[in-house]
């Protein structure tokens, strides 16, 4: 049994009828997010995201490797996401479902291909060594809208993460421990986030941040990746019934608004975490204007 | 009754906690099992040959009026079927003689006889489609691995849908709650009392009933498998909103484990938020 339990006819009909009256099951507006909570763990780059009942943990890690031969100046950045039975009983360990392929693909395109993390800054010594940054996403509970939650987690993690300092001396790469030198923040060029819309009733009703039941009842989904400045870096309409072109145009502005809202929440959480670390006597380490 | 008694699986139920009246047969709720002891070695001893043991951890609750005793388990999400439980099942597919239904996702299907409905004959059996919901009673749970669980919508002895309401659920909406909450709701809705704190610490149904009376009232069916079906089809224009409001009240109370006073506050707040006149 590794399939999501299908929705009953009653639930499907009710969700649709309720949306026709602009009512959602949890009393939200059509473009209102569920309560979002971003918190950080002890170590750098350890983020917990709670979006309604969807929750996940993102862990950013770094190691020194050899860059690809064709791109000697670029570091590496990978996003690893595996849907395990920990997140939902509908998922199997070690078997890749459609959802996993889809979500991984979207995350790759929104965060990695939009160059949110400046990979050139990860280069240590041309063609010899560079940093490899890895983002692991672990889903701990699933109630819809995995894409947006994972995106929030990864972006918050990248902003929170501090890698060890590395210098080149006489052709030798020296990596300093976290307690030897002030760890370095990653170079984030912009902060793109995805906003997923689900359409109902032949595209007439469009909602954001759908729960699992709403996702199952929907006709199609539209993902828009956009950053604070309003640059759209990703648009996808992967499957399902057709969606009117105007939906994309209209909803881009909604997405922009939401991305600003979410980024504000992330920034606030980051600030709170930094000031907490400063209180614990680590002020020197975490301040951005430190001399490197 | 003295302080609540907490039992662990395998614990015997002390006889002083059983209902005092001995005339009617004792009803056992979920989480309890009757075990027969081998006849004791000394034939003269008058010790009972049966013992009641708990199969789930929880608080023992005794109902003197109904001569029943049951275990009040923790509000976990996992449902283990026991005979006589009322459940809300979803039809997955049908075969020659049976409807194959899901009572919990990701578990083997349970069977519901095509003729196990009130007044059903070979010619007039209900035509249930995939995804239809039925309110049914667990008839039997087999023993051992691979055993099938059978549901029924009639009392096999009388041929009637007892208690009323068993059968196909049309319209309305289903909300997911914890099994503990389902058990509490079941108790609260089956025994109407005038206690201040309600039955099992739940006043939400009484409160909603009072407030939604003008809006046409509502129907509710609680499944022990953690599902509750709500229908306000008499509500006219506000039917959908009232249904959502009831669902939100129930799921929020379940999640935050609210006390009677908070439940009343929550009901008023949600009805106000959903703009339902009371």
Automatic annotation (TrEMBL), chain A:
GO terms for biological process: exonucleolytic trimming to generate mature 3'-end of 5.8S rRNA from tricistronic rRNA transcript (SSU-rRNA, 5.8S rRNA, LSU-rRNA); nuclear mRNA surveillance; nuclear polyadenylation-dependent rRNA catabolic process; rRNA catabolic process; TRAMP-dependent tRNA surveillance pathway; U1 snRNA 3'-end processing; U4 snRNA 3'-end processing; U5 snRNA 3'-end processing. GO terms for molecular function: mRNA 3'-UTR AU-rich region binding. Pfam families: RNase_PH, RNase_PH_C. It is found in: Cytoplasm; Nucleus, Nucleolus. Its main location: cytoplasm. Keywords: Cytoplasm, Exosome, Nucleus, Ribonucleoprotein, Ribosomal protein, RNA-binding, rRNA processing. Coiled coil: none annotated. One of its GO terms (cellular component) is ribosome. It comes from the Eukaryota. The keyword Ion transport does not apply. Residues 32-162, 192-242 form the Exoribonuclease phosphorolytic domain. Belongs to the RNase PH family. PANTHER family: EXOSOME COMPLEX COMPONENT RRP45 (PTHR11097:SF14), EXOSOME COMPLEX EXONUCLEASE RIBOSOMAL RNA PROCESSING PROTEIN (PTHR11097). This is Exosome complex component RRP45. It comes from Aspergillus ibericus CBS 121593.
TrEMBL record, chain B:
Residues 26-77 form the Exosome complex exonuclease Rrp40 N-terminal domain. Residues 25-49 have a biased composition (Low complexity). Residues 12-52 are annotated as: Disordered. Gene3D superfamilies: K Homology domain, type 1, Nucleic acid-binding proteins. InterPro entries: Exosome_RNA_bind1/RRP40/RRP4 (IPR026699), KH_dom_type_1 (IPR004088), KH_dom_type_1_sf (IPR036612), NA-bd_OB-fold (IPR012340), Rrp40_N_euk (IPR041054). It comes from the Eukaryota. Keywords: Exosome, RNA-binding. GO terms for molecular function: RNA binding. Pfam families: KH_6, Rrp40_N, RRP40_S1. The keyword Nucleus does not apply. It is found in: Nucleus. GO terms for biological process: CUT catabolic process; exonucleolytic trimming to generate mature 3'-end of 5.8S rRNA from tricistronic rRNA transcript (SSU-rRNA, 5.8S rRNA, LSU-rRNA); nuclear polyadenylation-dependent rRNA catabolic process; poly(A)-dependent snoRNA 3'-end processing; TRAMP-dependent tRNA surveillance pathway; U4 snRNA 3'-end processing. Residues 172-234 form the K Homology domain. GO terms for cellular component: cytoplasmic exosome (RNase complex); nuclear exosome (RNase complex). The keyword Ribosomal protein does not apply. PANTHER family: EXOSOME COMPLEX COMPONENT RRP40, PNAS-3 RELATED. This is Exosome complex exonuclease Rrp40.
């Amino acid at each position: 049994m590794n399939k999501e339990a299908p929705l009953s006819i009653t639930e499907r009909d009710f969700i649709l009828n309720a949306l026709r009256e602009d009512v959602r099951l949890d009393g939200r507006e059509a473009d209102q997010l569920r309560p979002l909570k971003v918190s950080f763990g002890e170590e750098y780059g350890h983020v917990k995201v709670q979006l309604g009942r969807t929750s996940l943990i993102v862990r950013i890690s770094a190691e020194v490797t050899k860059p690809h031969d064709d791109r000697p100046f670029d570091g590496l950045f990978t996003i690893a996401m595996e849907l395990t039975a920990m997140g939902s009983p509908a998922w199997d360990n070690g078997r890749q479902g459609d959802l996993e392929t889809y979500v991984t693909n979207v995350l790759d395109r929104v965060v990695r291909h939009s160059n949110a993390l400046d990979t050139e800054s990860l280069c240590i010594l041309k063609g010899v060594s560079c940093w490899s940054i890895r983002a692991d996403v672990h889903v701990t509970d699933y109630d819809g809208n995995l894409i947006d939650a994972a995106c929030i987690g990864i972006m918050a993690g990248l902003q929170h993460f501090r890698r060890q300092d590395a210098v080149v001396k006489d052709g030798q790469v020296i990596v300093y421990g976290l307690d030897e030198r002030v760890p370095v923040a990653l170079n984030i060029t912009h902060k793109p986030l995805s906003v997923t819309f689900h359409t109902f009733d032949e595209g007439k009703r469009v909602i954001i941040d759908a729960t699992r039941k709403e996702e199952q009842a929907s006709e199609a989904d539209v993902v828009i990746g956009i950053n604070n400045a309003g640059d759209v870096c990703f648009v996808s309409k992967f499957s399902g019934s057709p969606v009117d072109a105007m939906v994309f145009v209209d909803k881009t502005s909604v997405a922009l608004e939401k991305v600003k809202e979410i980024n504000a929440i992330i920034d606030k959480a980051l600030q709170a975490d930094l000031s907490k670390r400063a209180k614990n006597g680590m002020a020197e380490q975490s301040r951005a204007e430190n001399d490197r | 009754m003295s302080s609540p008694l907490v039992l662990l699986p395998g614990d015997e139920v002390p006889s002083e906690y059983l209902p005092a009246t001995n005339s009617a047969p004792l009803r056992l709720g979920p989480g309890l099992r009757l075990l027969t002891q081998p006849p004791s070695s000394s034939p003269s001893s008058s010790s009972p040959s049966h013992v009641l043991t708990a199969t789930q951890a929880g608080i023992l609750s005794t109902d003197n009026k109904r001569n029943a005793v049951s275990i009040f388990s923790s509000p976990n999400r996992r449902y283990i079927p026991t005979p006589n439980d009322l459940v809300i099942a979803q039809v997955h597919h049908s075969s020659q003689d049976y409807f194959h239904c899901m009572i919990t996702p990701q578990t083997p299907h349970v069977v519901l006889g095509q003729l196990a409905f009130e007044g059903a004959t070979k010619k007039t059996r209900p035509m249930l489609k995939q995804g239809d919901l039925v309110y049914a009673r667990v008839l039997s749970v087999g023993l051992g691995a691979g055993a099938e669980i059978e549901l029924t919508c009639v009392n096999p002895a009388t041929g009637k849908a007892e208690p009323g309401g068993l059968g196909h659920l049309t319209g309305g909406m289903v909300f997911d709650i914890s099994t503990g909450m389902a058990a509490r709701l079941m108790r609260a809705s089956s025994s109407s009392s005038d206690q201040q704190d309600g039955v099992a610490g739940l006043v939400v149904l009484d409160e909603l009933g009072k407030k939604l009376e003008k809006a046409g009232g509502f129907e509710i069916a609680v499944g022990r498998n953690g599902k509750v079906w709500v229908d306000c089809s008499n509500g006219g224009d506000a039917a959908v909103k009232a249904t959502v409001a009831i669902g939100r009240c129930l799921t929020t109370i379940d999640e935050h484990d609210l006390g009677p006073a908070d439940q009343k506050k929550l009901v008023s707040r949600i009805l106000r938020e959903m703009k339902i006149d009371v």
